[in-house]
């Protein structure tokens, strides 16, 4: 008879968690380093992040999108498709650096996706409620199922947690496409120059993309781990 399995007691899971944490911290460190470097480089047109985002959307023929100064934490910038609002943190909204312009126009790139009916953006929006539920209940249901010896309950938790990975997976093309759209539009409409400014925007957005890659890898590894523990990948299921 196996002892009940509890989260955090397995050294394999501890190693996986530490590795995923390290990957996330490295990705965040690269973003901070790139943002800090190009925060010291002013854009040649002296545009704020908000002004650059408005200019890009106007030049691309997208109307009805509001640019909002969002009182959130550092780099909490995001696009809200339900309200058609680009929310920019103060450093980005008011900043006149290449980094601020890059981040602002990346978020405006999501508004371009919305206007052009980019399929993955719509799919990601549909997954938000389910993924939110999966992030809160997935692992607890797995643990309760293991503690009670209920494989069905544990599998239900695994399916819920799987929606978190699916959300992270779909997020990758959404974010990469928004960056690609903004990079093209910024240069095409003269928002930034083609030299150091364009390279700076690319550096900041490429570093930011790594955070989404890290999140997807972390959720995939944890999903595979729990599938293995439940005996769905050749592993031995824990039971009472």
Give the helices and strands, then pairings:
Elements: H1 11-38, H2 49-59, E1 66-69, E2 78-80, E3 85-88, H3 90-94, H4 98-115, H5 119-148, H6 151-188, H7 196-229
Parallel strand pairs: 1-3
Antiparallel strand pairs: 2-3
Helix pairs in contact: 1-7, 2-4, 4-6, 4-7, 5-6, 6-7
Distance between the termini: 6 Å
Number of helices: 7
Question: What composes the largest sheet?
Answer: 3 strands, mixed
Strand order of the largest sheet: 1-3-2
What are the low-pLDDT stretches, counting only 5+ consecutive residues below 50?
1-8
Number of DSSP-assigned strands: 3
Instruction: List the helices and strands in order.
Output: HHEEEHHHHH
The rough form would be described as elongated
Radius of gyration: 21 Å
What portion of residues belong to β-strands? under 5%
Q: Roughly what percent helix?
A: 55-70%
Give the integer mean of the pLDDT values. Answer: 89
What does this molecule look like?
With 240 residues, this protein is mainly alpha-helical. It has one domain (11-229). It is 68% helix and 5% strand. The protein has helices at residues 11-38, 49-59, 90-94, 98-115, 119-148, 151-188, 196-229; strands at 66-69, 78-80, 85-88. Strands 1-3-2 form a three-stranded mixed beta sheet. The model is unreliable at 1-8 (pLDDT under 50).
Brief characterization of the structure:
With 240 residues, the protein is mainly alpha-helical.
List keywords for this structure.
240 residues; three-stranded mixed sheet; 3 strands; mainly alpha; 68% helix; 7 helices; disordered N terminus; 5% strand; elongated
């Amino acid at each position: 008879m196996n002892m009940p399995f509890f989260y955090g007691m397995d050294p394999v899971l501890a190693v996986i968690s530490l590795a995923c944490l390290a990957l996330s911290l490295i990705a965040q460190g690269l973003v901070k380093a790139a943002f800090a470097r190009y925060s010291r480089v002013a854009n040649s047109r002296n545009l704020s992040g908000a002004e650059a985002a408005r200019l890009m959307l106007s030049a691309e023929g997208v109307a009805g999108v509001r640019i909002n100064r969002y009182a959130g934490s550092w780099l909490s910038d995001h696009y809200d498709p339900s309200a058609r609002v680009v929310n920019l943190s103060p450093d980005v909204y008011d900043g006149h650096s290449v980094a601020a312009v890059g981040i602002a126009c990346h978020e405006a790139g999501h508004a371009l996706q919305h206007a052009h009916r980019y399929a993955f953006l719509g799919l990601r929006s549909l997954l938000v409620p389910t993924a939110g539920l999966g992030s809160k209940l997935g692992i607890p249901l797995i643990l309760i199922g293991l503690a009670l010896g209920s494989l069905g309950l544990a599998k239900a938790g695994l399916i819920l947690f799987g929606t978190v990975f699916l959300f992270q997976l779909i997020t990758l093309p959404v974010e990469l496409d928004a960056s690609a759209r903004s990079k093209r539009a910024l240069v095409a409409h003269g928002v930034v120059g083609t030299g150091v400014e364009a390279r700076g925007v690319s550096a900041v957005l490429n570093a930011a993309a790594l955070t989404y890659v890290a999140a997807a890898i972390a959720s995939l590894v944890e999903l595979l781990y729990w599938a293995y523990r439940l005996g769905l990948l050749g592993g031995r299921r824990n039971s009472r």
